[in-house]
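Design a sequence for this backbone.
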């Protein structure tokens, strides 16, 4: 059943035509409709404050309109379909024949539905990461539009035109065409037939909109031309505007317009917003579950056992294959974050990574009958474990297809190494030391991973359970919004603690200044975490490795130390920008564009990750971190940070968890290491 689930997951973007987007996609600004629906279980509200001034030279009439434009959109049944209600609540004031009249009420209301008929297949293609020209040049095929149809019914009609009343109920239809002729430019054409029950009320129009997304990704500008044709009214209207993506679910916009006719001449403007309530993920899960249930009864025969061969890697090419295997396993998964291939290969080198002074590692690849790689695992023996009397073999970098035979074969190789070295049990997934990634993802599969964690499919834990593994240690991933912090409280607490204990923040404006305190930081780190289960001390060689690999890449203002009145280091924190999305764009490679994506993420980011944090035992529960948070709040605000992620913490590490209680953190993921006794 799990295999079917993953197959459906990989095919879902194609079968559902990819309507839903991670960032809100509004019809505003402008009056045209997009060809795409908002996505099932997405409720989207669009509208704004609107003003219009009309002057009719022939009749010597002047009109002022003010009101609220609104639209409510909801996706249901399929990705292609949405229902929509839109209209206007307006007040108008008319000056004519030396008299003034006014009205207030609903006008121009329409309820209807839109369905996507066609979407070009090339829009679902992966970008060519090796060719800038392929992704940024014009192609004739890009002119092929997506096509949608809209049908609706007008009600509470507008009676404020310069002709007689229109029908109480009347139909409205539209053909919608949308294309992306060049990158970041979208064109939309609406062909509209409105109120065509009678010749007198029939109105035809078109709206052509061109939108350009600026390089920063948050701002867009647009230009729009609308033409209206009827027996009683004709016009040409031009609109210009701008939109700003404030968050994934909120867009702000503004536009100005002018009508070129003098019967009447029109000037208009709107300041608006679009907001969505996004329950799309729940729909995806339901679809997948339903699909799995319907196919489960079709496979009653016991599947044929496949031949799996396991090979211990011996060449540089095989090591590279080991690192690159997850790129195919997690292809198109929106939550998995690939490592930098060259960086990970180097970390497995005995000549480059000093951890091998204390650890042995054995790397295995699983192959199917067609000699295709279907799994991998690393077996690790850490001498610090043995010196503490912990007779275990670690396993990490466990990845495999959804085939229990593959997992069983890989685990057996780990067990063989354990028997060879007379060890009692295995535990994992975990790395070489306490500085490495740890834990199998057991909950929170719909959240993007980070560079400090592994991502796993749900079937991983099911395989381990079937093989007899039991949970050993639990970990939690937490996050909080900066807006939930209490800066006034931290500032007040920080000032009180400074006076009481004589502690102070160390100013480290440059990387060189940071490096002066790193050794003391690791001394404190060893002291703080040594009491936790399976802690492995950080050696001097590993410290030097960390200094060279990580410190130069971290913004110095994101690293802070606290010392007491004698100048002894008592607390530290290392915060890093989130590189998750940048690493996804890099697709495992620094060149040609990976380096650029990482540098861009370092400079512009709205999410940070607390990589390391520690407080000396004698200062725990004394509010010392308030100094750090008082400092970081201002830094984060200045850099546009809105979200903070806390990398995995042991469930038993209550002291660290207490640091975050004032931020209203949420647990968005859980992990665990699993243990299995080795049969002798």
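Sequence:
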């Amino acid at each position: 059943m799990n295999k079917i689930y993953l197959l459906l997951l990989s095919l879902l973007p194609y079968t559902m035509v990819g309507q839903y987007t991670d960032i809100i996609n509004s019809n505003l600004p402008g009056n045209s409709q997009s060809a795409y629906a908002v996505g099932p279980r997405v409720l989207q509200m669009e509208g704004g404050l609107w003003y219009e001034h009309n002057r009719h030279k022939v009749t010597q009439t002047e009109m002022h309109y003010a009101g609220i434009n609104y639209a409510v959109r909801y996706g249901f049944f399929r990705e292609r379909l949405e229902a929509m209600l839109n209209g206007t609540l307006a007040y108008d004031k008319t000056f004519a024949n030396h008299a003034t009249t006014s009205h207030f009420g609903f006008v121009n209301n329409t309820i209807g539905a839109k369905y996507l008929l066609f979407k070009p297949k090339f829009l679902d293609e992966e970008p060519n990461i090796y060719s800038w020209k392929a992704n940024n040049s014009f192609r004739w095929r890009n002119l092929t539009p997506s096509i949608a149809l809209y049908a609706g019914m007008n009600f509470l009609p507008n009676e404020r035109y310069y002709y007689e009343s229109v029908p109480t109920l009347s139909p409205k239809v539209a053909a919608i065409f949308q294309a992306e002729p060049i990158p970041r430019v979208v064109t939309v054409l609406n062909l509209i037939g409105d109120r065509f029950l009678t010749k007198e009320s029939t109105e035809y129009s078109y709206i052509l909109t061109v939108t350009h997304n600026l390089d920063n990704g948050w701002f867009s500008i647009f230009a729009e031309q609308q033409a209206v044709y009827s027996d009683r009214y004709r016009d040409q209207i031009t609109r210009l505007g701008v939109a700003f993506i404030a968050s994934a679910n909120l867009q702000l916009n503004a536009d100005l317009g002018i009508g070129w006719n003098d019967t009447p001449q029109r000037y208009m403007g709107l300041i608006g917003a679009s907001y969505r309530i996004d329950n799309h993920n729940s729909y995806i899960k339901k679809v997948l579950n339903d699909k799995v249930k319907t196919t489960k009864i079709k496979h009653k025969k016991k599947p044929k056992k496949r031949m799996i061969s396991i090979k211990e890697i011996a060449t540089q090419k095989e090591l590279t294959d080991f690192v690159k295997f997850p790129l195919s396993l997690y292809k198109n998964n929106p939550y998995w974050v690939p490592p930098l291939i060259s960086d990970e290969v180097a970390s497995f080198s005995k000549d480059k990574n000093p951890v091998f002074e204390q650890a042995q590692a054995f790397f295995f690849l699983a192959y199917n009958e067609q000699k295709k790689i279907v799994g991998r695992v690393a077996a690790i023996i850490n001498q610090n474990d043995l010196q503490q009397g912990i007779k275990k073999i670690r396993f990490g970098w466990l990845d495999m297809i959804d085939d229990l035979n593959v997992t069983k074969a890989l685990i057996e190789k780990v067990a063989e190494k354990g028997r060879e070295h007379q060890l009692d049990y295995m535990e994992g997934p975990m790395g070489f030391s306490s500085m490495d990634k740890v834990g199998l993802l057991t909950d929170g599969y719909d959240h993007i991973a980070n560079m400090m964690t592994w991502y796993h499919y749900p079937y991983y834990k099911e395989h381990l359970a079937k093989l007899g593994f039991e949970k050993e240690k639990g970990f939690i991933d937490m996050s909080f919004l900066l807006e939930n912090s209490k800066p006034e409280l931290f500032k007040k607490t920080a000032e009180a603690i400074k006076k009481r204990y004589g502690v102070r923040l160390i100013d480290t404006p440059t990387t060189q200044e940071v490096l002066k305190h790193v050794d003391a930081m690791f001394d404190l780190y060893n002291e703080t975490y040594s009491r936790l289960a399976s802690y492995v001390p950080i050696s001097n060689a590993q410290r030097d490795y960390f200094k060279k690999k990580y410190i130069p890449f971290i913004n110095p203002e994101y690293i802070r130390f606290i010392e007491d009145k004698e100048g002894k280091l008592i607390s530290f924190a290392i915060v890093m920008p989130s590189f998750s999305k940048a690493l996804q764009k890099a697709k495992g490679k620094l060149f040609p564009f990976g380096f650029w994506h990482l540098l861009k993420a370092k400079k512009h980011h709205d999410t940070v990750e607390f990589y390391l944090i520690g407080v000396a035992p004698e200062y725990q529960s004394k509010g010392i971190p308030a100094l750090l948070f008082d400092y970081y709040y201002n830094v984060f605000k200045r850099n546009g940070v809105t979200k903070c992620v806390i990398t995995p913490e042991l469930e038993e590490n209550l002291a660290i968890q207490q640091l975050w209680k004032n931020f209203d953190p949420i647990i968005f993921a859980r992990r665990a290491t699993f243990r299995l006794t080795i049969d002798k």
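The CA atoms of residues 169 and 196 lie 11 Å apart.
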